[in-house]
Amino acid sequence: MKNLLVWSLALSALGACSGGHHPEGDPRGDGGGGNFNPRGSGDGGGFNPSGDGGNFNPSGDGGGAGGGVYCGQSDSTECGCGTMPANGYTQNAACGPSQTGGSPSLCCATAAWPGATPGNLFDIECVCSQIFCEIDFSGDVCQCGFGAPTQGDKPVSGCSGYAVCCRGRSTLAPTCACYKQNIGCSSDEEQVPSCAPSDLRCSDQSPSSCN
Question: 20, 96, 115, 118: least buried by Cβ within 10 Å?
């Protein structure tokens, strides 16, 4: 899964809702439950403004307003776009369901897209990703979101029959997660009866493609 620190910074910059923080010992923090919250750790890729020559690195090639849309792949299942040049991104490159490697998929964009959002530090304006659902290795959490399941998780088509399901809207990492324990949803989540790819919601726009 993607680097949690980078995603936390990006989510903060966008003011996106991707599910609340829960205390230690909560089922959401049991390892498997973190997979889509958002992209916990370890799969190396995507939306990394530093490190590997990364995507969405506004300063990597001199920066500055490019006067267009810049898009590229964060990995084989996801692409993203911004308004400034970035390493690995191409002006006016395609970014949509065809670039996510499969279906179901979803595209989410900021309210300003295709324009720039003031204060958007990493210039992440629109994301298209394949949607995955999985049951974590403990079996206590089933969730759907961006980012493929990791080793030990069981891929599924959706989640039902759990005590509670919570949906978090976001531009970068929308989630829908179900828990065996009736722990209640966070204040920035909404309770739903079940979770499936069709239950994911963007926080602002839901375009058919980013570009």
Answer: 118
